[in-house]
Design a protein that fits this description.
The complex is a heterodimer of chains A (255) and B (240). Chain A has 255 residues and is mainly α. Chain A is built from 11 helices and no strands. The longest helix of chain A is centred in the middle third of the chain and has 31 residues. Classes of the chains: A mainly alpha (255), B alpha/beta (240).
Chain lengths: 255, 240
Amino acid sequence: MGRLIKIILMDILKNRIVLAYTLILAILSWSSFALEDNSAKGLLTILNVILFTVPLVSVLFSTIYIYNSSEFIELLLGQPVRRSKIWLALFISLSLSMLLAFFTGAGLPLLVHSANSVGFMMILVGCLISVIFVALAFLSSIATRDKAKGIGIAIMIWLYFALLFDGIVLFLLFQLSDYPIENAMVAVTALSPIDLARIQILLHLDVSAMMGYTGAIFKDFFGTSTGLIVSFLLLCLWAVIPFAISLKKFKNKDL
Amino acid sequence: MIEINGLNKKFGKLQVLNSVHLSCQPQQCIALIGPNGCGKTTLIKSILGMVLPDSGSISFNGKSIKGEFLHRAKIGYMPQIGRYPDNMTIAQIIDMIKKIRNSPDALDEDLYHAFELEKMRDKQMRTLSGGTTQKVSAVLAFLFNPDVLILDEPTAGLDPLASEILKDKIISEKEKGKLILITSHLLSELDDLVTQIIFMQEGSVRFHKEIHELTNLTGESRISKAIAQILRQQKNGTTD
């Protein structure tokens, strides 16, 4: 297992895209701290970076990488290696490389400029989001043999979670504003890892006061330590479940 | 050594394997022949566990291979079309497989030297010609001294010199008592290699016979003619 991960990781890190991703994250993070005089504003800018770029790059790069590894997977299948081990090694190496890129790009400036609970929270959430979208990439690439279709699904996943989901939630909020839906909204956020992450960080930034009554409900739930644990567990499930489904499919696939 | 019982496989609506029964023992060199799309490669991939059969069983050394992977350590597989990571060099591919296998046994690098791959060890896989890629596949198949060699169209795409080298290697491995399974369309190439013939058609095994049995039956000394005659007989409905 270790050998396999090492081989794949070396191959990924040779890829210039990961380097470019790290650089872009670094430029965005350092400059947003440099441009704003107070670090809370910088944090908000970085939050948006984390919630848009990190999922996009993680899901897209991983999907393309998995499709491009089809020869490698085929080669390994002729060797005495367990199928699940091949898939797991790919997942761990892709996650590690995305984590490494995120940490050197965005984690370091966060630690330098905002070494408090919000900063740590942001790094943790960013790491989780990276792994979650790598797992979703595994799901989209096992869904079809066609590379173009697979990449299309990956982009759809990103669009849905980054843009559409918010739109749908907002639409529901307006349509159902006459009903007491605040508690239901808390449950709905569990359906999107990006929203879970956003709420978690916003609550720590003390701007939740601006979110009105719903914000207060959120604070009531997510602000408590139970809420915190529940939302982290949910985020972990978002990584585990898609990968587990893809692993099950991969085990039963004809290659 | 390899026992196959009632193997069935469907790809969509197409029945690729239709209750295949086979038994292969060491020291046999078996030619697996049949028209295109008759299920030869699917059968081979099932033995390797790359294709998962719908029903039926395959056992290797008396043990079912379902969910197993260790039996692949005893199989050297040379695919019909070897696909390798584009940006790796020949040396890197071979090193990687060595690392993954981590085999304590002595390696068999005869073919590596015979094919003179040393000279182009730093060439990337995507720059290689089809024949050279075949040579790499062959080297990998023989590298770990496996008990079973499964060669899917081994000489297709090889130049005459390389294909002679490979044939000599196959014969010498056969004499060491290994089980060798070859699929090929070049029946003339098989004459001095094989001891048994399996003929497949539309997903099922038409016959599985020793060479001398086949030649006695038909009175022909060449495999290609003997098979042609059997097929003609079957068509006319006069066969046994």
